[in-house]
Amino acid sequence: MSEIEKLKKALEFLTSHIPGANELAEVVNEGSLVLDTSHEDSPEDVLLKKSESLNEAEKEQTMLDAFKVKNLNNLEVGRLYERYVGYLYENEGWSVTYKGIVDGLNDLGRDLICIKNNVHKVVQAKCWSKHTEIRENHIYQLFGSFTHYRMQLRQVFKATHGRTKAREMMKNLKIIPVICSNNDLSETAKDVTKYLNIEHFQIKLIKEYPMIKCNINNDRKLYHLPFDPAYDSIIIGNVEGECYVNTIKEAQNLGFKRVNSK
């Protein structure tokens, strides 16, 4: 076997066994709008035409509109899907932590942690080509991550409250593994999902959902755009008056100012 054939075999192995490897390879070759804009001191350099002369509100809206219509690579589509699923949960009163986007390859196969009262949902979000089924290996990965989450939670409770109290607290919690996908599961994956009591929701990505996060922090009302660095660490809904909106004008009319604005 030639060296090139060996390298091809190694690449095939990595991209088929490591979650996100295909997407990372694509980012290296083609770049990433999300990464480029969120790590730029001036995202307008990426999203605006040099000739545009606009006030700040118009500039921000133009940047957001440009962000929404840009062609995204597979990694970016996946991240957008995680945000969309998280938005749907937040709209239903869940407190959502975006593990996949914030932690990257260290997310342990759980993209979102959604909590409401005594219910915790460990969510994996998959937005793939419509011709690609979700196979059973991803269901097993989610179940392993769900089990690891239970273990970690119990360890925290045990360290904080002691063994007996931790056991009682875990009994009062309902922890549910969930897979959300834009397409269907394979027949074997469906069987495994049913056997392991994993919830599956088929959700199509709607790119035109409200993306502006209006957050209240220590009485400061700030809005965050999807290419702002802290966007995915901002939780919406845990303070009354927080919301998602479609336009800069809506955010400003509600009394919110752009994060880091003077």
> How far do the termini sit from each other?
62 Å
What's the architecture of the domain at 74-202, going by CATH? 3-Layer(aba) Sandwich
- How many strand units? 9
Q: Return the structural class.
A: alpha/beta
**Helical stretch count?**
11
Strand order of the largest sheet: 1-2-3-4-5
Query: CATH topology of the domain at 74-202, anyone?
Result: Trna Endonuclease, Chain: A, domain 1
Strand portion, in percent?
Answer: 15-25%
Oligomer: single chain
What is the string of helix and strand elements? HHHHHHEHEEHHEHEEEEHE
Helicity, in percent? Answer: 40-55%
Mean pLDDT: 82
Task: Describe the structure in your own words.
The protein is an alpha/beta fold. Among the domains are: 74-202, Trna Endonuclease, Chain: A, domain 1, CATH 3.40.1350; 212-258, no CATH class. The chain is 47% helix and 17% strand. The protein has eleven helices and nine strands. The chain has helices spanning 3-17, 21-30, 33-38, 44-47, 56-69, 74-91, 99-103, 136-161, 163-171, 187-195, 248-253, and strands spanning 95-98, 112-116, 119-126, 174-181, 199-202, 212-217, 220-224, 243-245, 257-258. The strands form two sheets. A five-stranded mixed beta sheet has the order 1-2-3-4-5. A four-stranded mixed beta sheet has the order 8-6-7-9. α8 (136-161) crosses α9 and α8 (136-161) packs parallel to α10. The protein is globular. Residues 26-33 have low confidence and may be disordered.
